[in-house]
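Give me structure tokens for this 376-residue protein.
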Amino acid sequence: MSHNPIRPWRNIERRKSRQIMVGAVPVGGDAPITVQTMTNTATTDVAATVAQVQAAAEAGADIVRVSTPDEASTRALRQIVRESPVPIVADIHFHYRRAIEAAEAGAACLRINPGNIGSAERVREVIRAAKANGCSIRIGVNAGSLERHLLEKYAEPCPEAMVESGLDHIRLLQDNDFHEFKISCKASDVFLAAAAYQSLADATDAPIHLGITEAGALMTGTVKSAIGLGNLLWMGIGDTIRVSLSADPVEEVRVGYEILKALGLRHRGVNIISCPSCARQGFDVIRTVEALEARLSHIKTPMSLSIIGCVVNGPGEALMTDMGFTGGGAGFGMVYVAGRQSHKMSNDRMIDHIVELVEQRAAEIEADADQTRESA
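Here you go.
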């Protein structure tokens, strides 16, 4: 949607993977990289869980995972699936019967952990349920719960052990003529996760789900995830992502999108480019950006907005964004539209004015898109 040209040095060549479906959402192949999160409400509290799923979907989540640790949770899952605006992944640990119940309840995907799901025969029963109910499967390898024989073989969690675990389960699914699967190999250690994912990407053409598991609180986890996921995505690895934070699931979605937006891999909402502020600023940059982020959070149309406190870098940044404001003097700054100077605006009215301009431009873009779809 931006007026800026695509420059070849910005392009990331994604790893070639086959495509599967998670409900109505394609994952892998040439499909956009999807953003996932996971609810943290009691699954048996259907109203609270559905509300959290809806909030995550409104923030941009393409897929939401729900824990199903017991039979009461899989019973509740049926209504959650029915009311969810996005596909639901059932998170399965320890008891294969929960996977079968979740498939029958309408889950779009079953996440199974090779380290604790049980014997090959139990996995075969899960595969039969997935086939019968149109579910895909995510093989979710985790460094913290590897199979005992792999820990004995390798002495500790390592990339080789994680990849071997994943490939063993890929073979089991394929031997049972099941191919609608994706795979992850998560660890809380960024180096361990990155090394495992790189090896896994070379060993299979299955879609890859990226994550740095148990990354930490909002700030710590965001930094670790941005480093780990960002480097893998830059290498072209990853078809769907989840940022694991000790925070509201909506924050996971926001961080996930920001990582993808920074790499030019997904575009959603207003990308605000702002200066850190200094003594040269002509207005309160920090307060302004905080207000604009909050008031523009409802905008889903991709758009770039520069908010720069002074004329040192302001005009140059504004040339590369859809809209911008650069601080000047005497309580006024310059508004830029499509990279060009448009008009002056007082600092005290600027926030309301920018919000109005962005909303107006977003409505125009969506109207043009609707007209294009109708004429197609």
